[in-house]
Inverse folding.
């Protein structure tokens, strides 16, 4: 038994993907046929149907679901649940367990997989019912096993035994079935132990085609003993490689071609593995290695580079010096040396900050690479990193000077604040980068005096000349005119952010606005939609967008062509995780996105709505708590002040309305709708429309708090209530007391979570001043609490000038 018509290239790719643990499994009854329990061998679907028909004395021509529907609860327990419980796995599952898998989806209701993995295993099973909330494994030590037809593990949740019943599950919003239908489009998957005549298999495979499947990953495989024209056509239609044989044959074949499969520890580079002591738990160590990359001290020089097109530089690009020497890099390296030289005299964290396109990420990676080359151990945080609370414990275990590098710091601000505060190690430095407009947020979360900044990344002195010379040297400039008039071109880009200068060099030094308009004009409608979708996702969350979500947000046909360098609006994969899509040039993408704000906001509204709809199955309360990439992306996507108001303008309300049905469970959604209506009130406070918007804001803020008693919702509710004080004839005392209680609860919750949030302080102080100016009076308890909060400002937010001044005004009013 072996592959049919597979090329050597496909077999090599299969072996590589199998070794790296990147395959998903979709298993049918055939994977459990050699499994037994107290009743003997497990029955097939046909056999259990006959048993139940005989039990209820009905013709065997009836369906399994009809026979099952006749059973009493006691009969279900005895003839179904017990019949498939306490299983002793056969050789098929024993062979399967030897390998690392990404996820397992199964139509089987038995507990054989769980029982096999009770033996010492490379991964720990996390079992899921198809109606459970979607969640991803927190690190590779966990293996999600999703039961698509129910399981004896949860008999109370019911079983699925018929086509009609399964179709009902498919057609309703069901997170795991939706996610599987997305994964199966492109992620490498092995389908084994299933009949080809199954409605759910037809449904899932219908999502997959040559257009959606990725050529840069291992082939997806259909394991079946059927070898006929139908199977051949099925494989061709869905871009599957056919393994002729039973499920047991396939997993035995895997053990023959890979007799000593790697462990999870084997997949971690030796240098990274040696960082942490053996005493650290396996789970903690694997989570740490998932979050951080050990920067190499040396790298082989790249022979060609995507960096010159605007992509993030690889270590190989830096080794080849495709970037230019910059003053900011030398300043950062000097700070690191001072930090290690006098650890008690300098703050632990340096934040490189400036506007988009000024080269922050490239400087960060250059400094990391140079520091590693000088003998310092350097850890680089992944864009998708969740930075667990246990990270500080791992950092404390690493000996010698250590530099931790974090790009896009605001995405990780809360976790980094805890990491910096809880790391006891002295010879450690933290280097980060973030856009200037988010610096205020960082100050709120990290606290005053906990970090220093380095700004002004404009090109200095010889840097524009070095930039042009680099492009000339690498033959990225085709016009002799540029070489002949080098001086004038140097002058023309000297005041541009470096990323904008690079883009102009690549496009004959035209103004960026003309370049953007030309690129939009040269692209197809479907290409522009895809590009805008990824650009929007990247604008919200720098890690980009999961490939499967992009597939379902836009037209699938032609997507592969957009990953080619000659496409007008090229896409690429994230350097550190090939499952996520980014634009080739992030600065250009942002300019295209902003250009569409003025050109076609209706198109942008459709992009927003489609992206939000496709994100929804991946986001739930647990995902939000675990800070998954999709949860972080959705949180920013719905942010009224920073995102929707700026990009959608008046269309923001239509966006929130169109996504209400799928996002109404989310308290953050209602907070943002409340803030939108509050803005409408402040724009026209004395009109009927403004007062109506204020009532809407209050209703939505109350709903957010009813869903989740979270500091964000409490802050929004308090802010809205304080605004009601501005309405003539308002019941001042009652409204103020409610607002005061909600804002104080928000502050207290933030304190208990060791977090800093400036918004409730602003609302509390400004609202209190408005209340007192209107003749309101404070209770002794409120006065005492206000004095405590004012004292908090002097210790936590003493660099927040506006807040300090506001606190001073409240102090005077209390006096």
């Amino acid at each position: 038994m072996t592959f049919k018509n597979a090329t050597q290239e496909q077999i090599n790719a299969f072996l590589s993907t199998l070794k790296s643990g990147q395959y998903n499994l979709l298993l049918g009854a055939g994977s459990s046929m050699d499994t037994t329990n107290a009743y003997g061998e497990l029955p097939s679907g046909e056999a259990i149907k006959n048993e139940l028909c005989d039990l209820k004395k009905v013709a065997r021509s009836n369906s399994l679901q009809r026979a099952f529907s006749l059973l009493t609860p006691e009969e279900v327990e005895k003839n179904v649940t017990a019949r498939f419980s306490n299983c002793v796995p056969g050789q098929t599952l024993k062979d399967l367990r030897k390998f690392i898998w990404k996820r397992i989806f199964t139509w089987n209701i038995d507990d054989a997989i769980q029982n096999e993995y009770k033996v010492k295993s490379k991964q720990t099973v996390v079992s899921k019912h198809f109606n459970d909330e979607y969640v991803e494994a927190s690190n590779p030590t966990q293996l999600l096993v999703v039961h698509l037809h129910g399981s004896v593990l949860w008999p109370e949740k019911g079983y699925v035994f018929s086509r009609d019943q399964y179709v009902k599950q498919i057609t309703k919003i069901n997170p795991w079935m939706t996610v599987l239908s997305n994964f199966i489009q492109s992620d490498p998957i092995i389908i084994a132990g299933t009949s080809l005549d199954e409605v759910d298999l037809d449904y899932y495979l219908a999502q997959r085609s040559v257009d959606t499947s990725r050529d840069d990953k291992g082939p997806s495989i259909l394991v079946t003993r059927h070898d006929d024209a139908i199977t051949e056509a099925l494989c061709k239609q869905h871009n599957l490689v056919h393994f002729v044989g039973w499920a047991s044959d396939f997993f035995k074949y895997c053990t023959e071609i890979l007799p000593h499969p790697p462990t999870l520890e084997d997949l971690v580079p030796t240098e990274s593995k040696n960082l942490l002591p053996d005493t650290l738990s396996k789970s903690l160590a694997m989570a740490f290695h998932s979050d951080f990359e050990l920067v190499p001290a040396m790298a082989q020089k790249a022979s060609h580079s995507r960096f010159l097109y605007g992509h993030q530089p690889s270590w190989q690009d830096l080794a080849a010096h495709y970037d230019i020497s910059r003053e900011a890099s030398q300043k950062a390296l000097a700070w690191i040396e001072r930090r290690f030289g006098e650890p008690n005299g300098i703050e632990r964290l340096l934040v490189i900050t400036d506007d988009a396109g000024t080269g922050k990420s490239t400087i960060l990676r250059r400094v990391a690479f140079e520091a590693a080359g000088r003998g310092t151990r350097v850890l680089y945080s992944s864009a998708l990193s969740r930075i667990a609370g246990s990270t500080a414990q791992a950092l404390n275990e690493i000996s010698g000077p250590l530099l931790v590098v974090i790009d896009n710091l605001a995405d990780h601000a809360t976790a980094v604040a805890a990491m910096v505060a809880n790391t006891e190690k002295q010879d450690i430095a933290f280097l980060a980068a973030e856009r200037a407009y988010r610096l205020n947020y960082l100050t709120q979360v990290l606290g005053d005096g906990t970090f220093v900044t380095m700004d002004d990344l404009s090109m200095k002195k010889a840097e524009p000349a070095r930039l042009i010379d680099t492009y000339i040297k690498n033959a990225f400039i085709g016009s002799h005119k540029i070489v002949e008039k080098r001086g004038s071109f140097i002058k023309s880009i000297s005041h541009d952010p470096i990323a904008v200068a690079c883009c102009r060099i690549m496009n004959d030094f035209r103004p960026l606005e003309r370049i953007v308009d030309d690129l939009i004009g040269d692209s197809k409608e479907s290409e522009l939609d895809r590009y805008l979708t990824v650009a929007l996702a990247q604008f919200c969350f720098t890690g980009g967008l999961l490939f499967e979500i992009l597939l379902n947000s836009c037209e699938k046909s032609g997507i592969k062509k957009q990953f080619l360098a000659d496409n007008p609006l090229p896409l690429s994969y994230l350097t550190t995780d090939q499952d996520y899509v980014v634009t080739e040039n992030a600065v250009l993408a942002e300019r295209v996105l902003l250009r569409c704000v003025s050109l076609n906001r209706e198109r942008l509204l459709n992009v927003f709505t489609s992206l939000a709809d496709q994100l929804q199955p991946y986001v739930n309360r647990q995902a939000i708590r675990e800070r998954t990439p999709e949860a972080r992306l959705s949180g920013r996507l719905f942010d009224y002040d920073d995102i929707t108001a700026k990009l959608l303008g008046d269309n923001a309300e239509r966006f929130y309305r169109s996504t209400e049905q799928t996002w109404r469970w989310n308290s953050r959604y209602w907070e943002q709708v409340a803030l939108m209506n509050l803005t409408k009130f402040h724009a026209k406070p004395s009109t009927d429309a403004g007062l109506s918007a204020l009532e809407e804001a209050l209703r939505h803020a109350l709903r957010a708090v009813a869903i989740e008693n979270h500091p964000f919702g409490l802050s929004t509710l308090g802010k809205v209530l304080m605004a009601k004080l501005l309405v003539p004839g308002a019941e001042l005392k009652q409204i103020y007391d409610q607002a005061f209680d909600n804002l104080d609860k928000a502050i207290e919750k933030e304190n208990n979570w060791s977090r800093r949030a400036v918004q409730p302080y602003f609302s509390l102080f400004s609202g209190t001043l408005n209340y007192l100016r209107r003749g309101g009076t404070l209770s002794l308890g409120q006065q005492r609490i206000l004095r405590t909060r004012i004292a908090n400002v002097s210790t936590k937010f003493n660099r927040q000038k506006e807040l300090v001044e506001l606190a001073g005004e409240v102090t005077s009013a209390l006096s």
Summary: Residues 384 and 629 are 6 Å apart (CA to CA). The first strand starts at residue 3 and ends at 4. The radius of gyration is 30 Å.
